[in-house]
Fold Phosphate-binding protein.
Amino acid sequence: MRNRSFRPARSVALGTAAGLVLAGCLAGVDDRPTVTRGSLSGAVTGAGATFPDPLFQEWIAHYEQRVETGVDIGYQAVGSGGGIEQFLADAVDFGSSERYLRQGELTVASEVRGCAAVQFPVLFGAVVLALHDDALDGLVLDPDVIAGIYDRRITRYDDPAIAALNPGMALPEAEILPVHRSDGSGTTYVFTRYLTAEVPFWAQRYAEGTDIDWHDDTLGGEGNEGVTRAVQENAGGIGYVNQSYALANDLATARVVNEDGQPIEPTLEATTAASEEASIPDDFQFDIDDIGGSGYPITGANWIFAYECGYEDETAAVLRDFWTWVLTDVEADRLAAELGYAPMGRELKRRVIEEIARINAG
């Protein structure tokens, strides 16, 4: 882990950042499959992460209304833990999570269908620290302070450790109320993976996971919606949520010090910068750690899970086409950027489209 030193952050508006990202990602991938539009029909079910749910609902609505009107895609935001569970129980056609399937889960998946699971990322997004008090917008936090807040070592906003990161900011003499996800959550995985990689005591006491044994003096909320509501309704509230929920609810957010000592605002550009630092192997099993430069450090991906076999032909065709459309259509990328998600770069899209083609190909 690099030594951190405080340097002023550069603020980038979401609209400007979206334009920069889309300039590199929108103009599609040339080798996408050819489909006669209006030819698909059938129903597809999915379940999983709440993290991408606002965007998934926009993608689904646009695809059903303007791309393939004979298709019905249902997605339930039950949390990443629920998405993995329902996928491995063969209860849905596809699952979604902010963490990839581990080897043991891949083994279970192959036993369920008698063929391999297919998993691939479809977007990147930031997990932000949302704040109840608008006057604290832009508050600078580092991983040690964030871990201290959730471990209740730091209980007030005017704590010396917070004051040292925020010279000149008038910090309230107020109690901090940390809010966490009470359900199995990929957002929790991204957040705790970050703290585990950065803070030794956190790694020893809590570690990473979709479901954590939180300190008793913290408050739980179900889904991004529940955490957002708890932050809004409770004085002193601070909670980790998907960036899109913070944007939609106009919440104050913290800047987070990255590996190069830069306090970074959670903008789309900063999320994209973080995703570009990630090393992504052929099996698409990766975490986004040790982010420096202009990258926002608490960044994660969303994975989709499907199977190489066992689908009806219509179902498989819809699955392949919908997720390929997500990665190749200008409107799909525009919707992602508007909601604060980072579309993937062209080369990564090309690799993922090859993986999507494995659905029902076994």
The chain has two domains: 14-125+300-356, 127-277. The CA atoms of residues 220 and 304 lie 26 Å apart. The chain has 14 helices and twelve strands.
